[in-house]
């Protein structure tokens, strides 16, 4: 469908290529063990995942800072669990979470296959709202950094997806034009609507059970990209 049009493919990272939930669970298991905290990780994550999702939405909308996001998502989760945890420990766990998160390297099924498939045909890039100090480590430790020519994060630009400025910056950096570029990401709001405002083509990788993109393409497995590129 886009084979004769597209020259540049832009990917989101977390929840699209890098398996955030799996790596996050492993990270919390590690840091709870390091501090001898007896916490049921599954119960913790059942509260943490939706709380983290809501915090990231606030972060995208500039309603909370990076530091507040890191604190609040833990404080609110412990509160849901009925646990009394000191601010000192919450801040320590928040720091160690960032320290160890990128040491885990699980990717979504089909990531390496689709990147190897696309690399000879297109220029590949990353646009991420993730924190600058960990995103590059995620790419390197997952051994996929060599696939991408440009990696742009929101802290580098000063705005977050879906703000058009981060897409404009990325297109300029990649020397690409919107009409010949496609954005592939898991967030309908941040990745798909944001890119469409710039005139980019889009593929919504629906890894979070969001509503389907009625105006465009929705996929549920990365291998489905081969139908369009």
Can you walk through the features of this model?
The protein has helices spanning 20-34, 41-60, 66-80, 87-101, 111-118, 132-141, 154-157, 164-174, 188-197, and strands at 8-11, 123-128, 150-153, 181-185, 201-205, 217-219. The chain is an alpha/beta fold and 229 residues long. Strands 3-2-1-4-5-6 form a 6-stranded parallel sheet, with helices on both faces. Helix 1 crosses helix 2 (41-60), helix 1 (20-34) crosses helix 4 (87-101) and helix 3 crosses helix 4 (87-101). The radius of gyration is 18 Å and the shape is elongated.
Please report the total strand number as a whole number: 6
Helix proportion range: 40-55%
- Tally of individual domains: 2
CATH architecture of the largest domain: 3-Layer(aba) Sandwich
What percent of residues are in strands? Answer: 5-15%
**Low-confidence runs of at least 5 consecutive residues:** none
- Taken from the alpha-carbon principal axes, the silhouette is elongated
Write the CATH fold name of the largest domain: Rossmann fold
The assigned structural class equals alpha/beta
Run of helices and strands: EHHHHHEHEHHEHEE
Rg, please? Answer: 18 Å
SS field, number of helical segments: 9
Termini separation = 7 Å
The pLDDT mean sits at 95
The CATH superfamily of the largest domain appears as: HAD superfamily/HAD-like
**Main sheet record:** 6 strands, parallel
The CATH class assignment of the largest domain is: Alpha Beta
The main sheet orders its strands as: 3-2-1-4-5-6
């Amino acid at each position: 469908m886009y084979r004769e049009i597209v020259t540049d493919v832009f990917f989101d990272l977390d929840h699209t290529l890098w398996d955030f939930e799996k790596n996050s669970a492993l990270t919390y298991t590690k840091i709870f063990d390091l501090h001898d905290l007896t916490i049921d990780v599954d119960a913790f994550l059942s509260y943490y995942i939706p709380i983290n999702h809501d915090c990231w939405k606030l972060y995208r909308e500039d309603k909370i800072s990076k530091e507040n996001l890191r604190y609040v998502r833990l404080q609110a989760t412990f509160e849901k669990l009925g646990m009394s945890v000191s601010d000192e420990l919450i801040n320590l766990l928040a720091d160690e979470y960032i320290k160890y998160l990128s040491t885990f390297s699980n990717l979504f099924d089909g990531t390496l296959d689709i990147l190897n498939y696309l690399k000879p045909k297109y220029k590949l890039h990353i646009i991420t709202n993730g924190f600058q100090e960990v995103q590059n480590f995620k790419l390197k430790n997952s051994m996929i950094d060599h696939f991408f020519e440009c990696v742009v994060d929101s802290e580098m630009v000063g705005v977050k997806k879906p703000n058009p400025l981060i897409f404009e910056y990325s297109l300029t950096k990649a020397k690409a034009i919107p009409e010949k570029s496609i954005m592939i990401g898991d967030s309908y709001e941040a990745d798909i609507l944001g890119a469409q405002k710039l005139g980019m083509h889009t593929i919504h990788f629906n890894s979070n059970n969001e509503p389907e993109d009625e105006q465009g393409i929705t996929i549920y497995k990365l291998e489905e990209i081969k139908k369009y590129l």
